[in-house]
TrEMBL record, chains A, B:
Classification via PANTHER family: CRP FAMILY TRANSCRIPTIONAL REGULATORY PROTEIN (PTHR24567), LISTERIOLYSIN REGULATORY PROTEIN (PTHR24567:SF28)
Protein name: CRP-like cAMP-binding protein
Keyword flag Transcription regulation: yes
Organism: Arenibacter echinorum
Cross-referenced Pfam families: cNMP_binding, HTH_Crp_2
Chain ranges of the Cyclic nucleotide-binding domain: 14-117
Top-rank taxon, per record: Bacteria
GO cellular component: cytosol
Length: 228, 228
DNA sequence: CGGCTCATTGAATATGGTCAACGCAAGTGG
DNA sequence: CCACTTGCGTTGACCATATTCAATGAGCCG
C-alpha cells in the first residue's frame, strides 16, 4: 500500500497543503479500498467517520428527491475528496456516492483531517478554497438547471463529459453513462433524454453506438447548448 | 459609527471567531454604507476588494443566464457576509448582489479578512463551516430545481419566506417580493408564477393583496410543496 | 391628467412527463 | 443448446406543464 507522501493524486486536492508530519499521520491511518461499479461508497444520511480520496475511477454524487427520482449533483473523479463537506459541518451525508465504474479510493479517518484543519491554517485555507470553488460551480448549476432547456443541458453534458473525461481511441466518450444516468444528471425523464440524444444523432451532432456516444460536431453541440 | 466588537450581527456569522485584536483591525478599516432598494452592491464580474456584512435589509444574489433571464440564487439577510467566496478564491464575483429593500451594510477590506484566515485557524474553520453549509444548501436547491414542478417550488418559496423573514402585524409576509422576483427565485416565467399564485389564492392557500402575500393555509401549502 | 410600473388574463404553442409496448443483448439454469 | 429472465435502449401516443406574445387593468407619482 502506497504512502500519501508519494501519492501524485494529492497534488490535485487540498491534501497538498499538509505538512510532512501531517501526511505521515494521514498515511498511517488511511485504508485503501476497491469499489466496484455500482457499489455505494456512502449513502444519504450516513454518518461519515472520514473522507474518501479518489485515486481512480468515477463516482456520481446524487440525492433522492422526495418524488423518488435521483438527481446527480456532480461527478467526482481522480483527486476529488468525497465526504469532506459532511465531516466539516459534522452532519450526516447530504448526498450518496456511487461508483460509476470500478474505483480505487483511500479512506482517511476524520481525526487526522480535523486536527490539521484546526492547527494548520495553510491546510484550512486550501480546503476553504476548494469548497468555495465547489460552491461557485453549484451556483452555476442552479442557474443552468432553472434557465436552460433539457436539450441545452444535454448538449452541455456531453461537452462536459468530453472535456473532463476525454475520449477513448475510437473517439467515444471515455466515461460511459447509462441513458438513465444522463437523464439524472440533467434532471429529466429517461425517455426525454433518449429522444433528445436520438435527435442529436439524426442531426449529426453526435454518433451513438449502444450506450457509447461520440461527439461528431463539437461546434454544433455548442450552438445547441447556448440555445439555437 | 459602531464598533465591530460590539456588533450583535457578528454573532450570526463567521466573524464571531475572530480575536479581539482582529476585530479591532476590522473595525478600523471597515466602512458602513446605506444601500437603497434596487441599488446594486456589486455585479457579476466585479473585482471585489472586500466583503460586505449585512446589518439590515435583504439582498438578492442573482446571475444572468445566457438567455437573458435573471436567476436569483439566494436571498441574504441580517448577518450574511456577501462576496466572501469571491475574495477567498480571488476570482471576480460570480453573482450580483442587489438590495431588495433598503439596507445597511459594512464593507470590510479583504486584507483584514485574508490575514486572519491565514493566521487564525479558528476563524478559517468557522468560515469553512459556513461555506460548507452554503454548499449543502446549494446542492439541495439543485435537486429542487430539477425535480420539482414550478407549483411545488412556489409553494416552498412562500414557506421559506415566512420562515426566514416572518410576517408583519397584518399577517403578510414581511419580505415583499415582486412577482418577477418570485419567478426568478423559482426559475420560471413571470406569468407562470402569477398564474400559480392566483391559483393558490383561489384554493385558499394564500391571501394576496397587490404584491403583498399572506399564507392562509400553511399545511395546504406544505402538501402542494411535497407534491399533491 | 398623463405616464409609469407592475399585476393579471387569454390563447396559442412548445416542451417535457408518463404509460405502455417492443427489441435486443447478456446472462442463467435446465 | 434452448427457453427464460432481466436490464436497457428505443419508440409511439397522449397528457400535463410551462413559455410566449399580446392585451388589459390597477395603482402610483409627478
Amino acid at each position: 500500500m502506497g504512502r500519501c507522501e508519494n501519492c501524485i493524486i494529492r497534488q490535485f486536492n487540498s491534501l497538498r497543503a499538509m505538512s510532512k508530519e501531517e501526511l505521515k499521520r494521514v498515511s498511517d491511518t488511511k485504508t485503501t479500498k476497491l469499489v466496484k461499479k455500482g457499489e455505494t461508497i456512502f449513502g444519504e444520511g450516513d454518518k461519515l467517520n472520514g473522507v474518501f480520496c479518489v485515486r481512480d475511477g468515477v463516482s456520481k454524487l446524487s440525492k433522492l428527491s422526495p418524488n423518488g427520482k435521483d438527481q446527480i449533483v456532480k461527478l467526482a473523479t481522480k483527486g476529488a475528496v468525497l465526504g469532506q463537506r459532511s465531516v466539516i459541518t459534522e452532519e450526516v451525508a447530504n448526498l450518496s456516492a456511487i461508483a460509476v465504474n470500478d474505483m480505487e479510493v483511500c479512506f482517511v479517518p476524520k481525526d487526522a483531517i480535523m486536527d490539521s484543519l484546526n492547527s494548520n491554517p495553510n491546510f484550512a485555507v486550501e480546503v476553504l478554497r476548494h469548497i468555495a470553488h465547489d460552491l461557485k460551480e453549484a451556483d452555476d448549476v442552479i442557474v443552468n438547471m432553472s434557465q436552460k432547456t433539457v436539450k441545452q443541458r444535454i448538449a452541455e453534458a456531453f461537452i462536459y463529459l468530453e472535456e473532463n473525461f476525454g475520449k477513448d481511441k475510437n473517439g467515444y466518450l471515455a466515461l460511459t453513462l447509462s441513458r438513465e444516468d444522463i437523464a439524472n444528471v440533467v434532471g429529466t425523464a429517461t425517455e426525454s433524454a433518449i429522444r433528445i440524444i436520438s435527435d442529436f444523432k439524426k442531426l449529426g451532432l453526435i454518433k451513438a453506438f449502444g450506450k457509447k456516444v461520440a461527439i461528431a460536431d463539437r461546434n454544433g453541440l455548442n450552438e445547441v447548448a447556448k440555445g439555437s
